[in-house]
From TrEMBL:
<dbReference type="InterPro" id="IPR014730">
    <property type="entry name" value="ETF_a/b_N"/>
</dbReference>
<dbReference type="InterPro" id="IPR014729">
    <property type="entry name" value="Rossmann-like_a/b/a_fold"/>
</dbReference>
<dbReference type="InterPro" id="IPR029035">
    <property type="entry name" value="DHS-like_NAD/FAD-binding_dom"/>
</dbReference>
<dbReference type="InterPro" id="IPR018206">
    <property type="entry name" value="ETF_asu_C_CS"/>
</dbReference>
<keyword id="KW-0813">Transport</keyword>
<dbReference type="InterPro" id="IPR033947">
    <property type="entry name" value="ETF_alpha_N"/>
</dbReference>
<dbReference type="Pfam" id="PF01012">
    <property type="entry name" value="ETF"/>
</dbReference>
<keyword id="KW-0249">Electron transport</keyword>
<keyword id="KW-0285">Flavoprotein</keyword>
<dbReference type="Pfam" id="PF00766">
    <property type="entry name" value="ETF_alpha"/>
</dbReference>
<comment type="subunit">
    <text>Heterodimer of an alpha and a beta subunit.</text>
</comment>
<keyword id="KW-0274">FAD</keyword>
<dbReference type="InterPro" id="IPR001308">
    <property type="entry name" value="ETF_a/FixB"/>
</dbReference>
<feature type="domain" description="Electron transfer flavoprotein alpha/beta-subunit N-terminal">
    <location>
        <begin position="4"/>
        <end position="182"/>
    </location>
</feature>
<protein>
    <submittedName>
        <fullName>Electron transfer flavoprotein subunit alpha/FixB family protein</fullName>
    </submittedName>
</protein>
<comment type="function">
    <text>The electron transfer flavoprotein serves as a specific electron acceptor for other dehydrogenases. It transfers the electrons to the main respiratory chain via ETF-ubiquinone oxidoreductase (ETF dehydrogenase).</text>
</comment>
<dbReference type="InterPro" id="IPR014731">
    <property type="entry name" value="ETF_asu_C"/>
</dbReference>
Amino acid sequence: MSNVLVLVDHTAGVVRKTTAELLTIARRLGEPVAVFIGDNASEALPALGQYGATKVIALTNPELSQYLVSPKAEALQQVAAKIEPSVILISSNAEGKEIAARLAVKLESGLITDAVDVQEGPVTTQSVFAGNYTVKSKITKGTAIITVKPNAATPEAAETSPEVEEFDVTISDAAKTARITESKPRAATGRPELTEAAIIVSGGRGTGGDFGPVEAFADSLGAAVGASRAAVDSGWYPHAYQVGQTGKTVSPQLYVAAGISGAIQHRAGMQTSKTIVAINKDNEAPIFELVDFGVVGDLHKVLPAATEEVTKR
Ligand code: FAD
């Protein structure tokens, strides 16, 4: 079986759920080999073994965390030369996509970004043109490099006992172009990260600026909070939580849109969600064309009632 390289997405050794999803996909395609950048690979080992990594290659060169992006692409090029993977899977976040693009140039390989599914082949599924088309594609040149969106697969455990193998890479001066001078975690909300969350409750202009009911309902479900651009532009919620064409693209199991009309630019960021629920007081709001369940009503009444019901259970 050919090797499938998975770049581990983690924070200080704590592996993100997206990596479990990538490993689950990797097992459909070959032998998953995890590449861990940082010096705490041993902390990540149980999580990587739980989802079937057969080996963990640890890259501990300090330049990899001191500089943005380019050294990581150089390092992955060297790992690829060593293990000759048929596929490289990377999380579809801003850094992951940039690493993937640079790596594709270095390996002269085809690249597919933002896959919402990857099956044997590998054949990928993507949503394109603001979500108006779904396409299936296959890379025909070199090592298939694919960035995969969060929630593209349900993590399936497959216990292995991988060993950590340290691998020393050489980082050129040319790659040391952008040094990280400060790194601060965002103030913790206690909620899941928007692009990784299984459930998202989003509020729009219909909230009238009061996100209290949206946040309370999200918390009752253990969900993340999102916002439409109208809510963000009004200064009601930070831009980091905007869903849509000029915000984040999300694909949760459940997306609840409260007081959001369903403009095409908002849909572009959420219409691949598995189940969509809308609460809107206008029964002709375009969002209702898209939903699995719709509630016509005032979100300030519907959301507290739903929160109470969920909290009771
Ligand atoms: P509105 O369209 O004003 O809708 C508010 C809805 O709330 C209405 O349907 C109304 O019936 C309902 N409502 C009002 N009161 C209540 C209540 N009490 N209870 C229940 N329902 C209520 N938008 C995005 O969201 N994300 C983007 O990334 C984005 N990018 C854009 C990029 C470009 C280039 C452009 C031109 C636009 C972009 N937009 C984006 C803006 C987009 O076109 C819409 O203007 C925006 O999505 C509207 O937000 P909204 O649905 O919250 O507000």
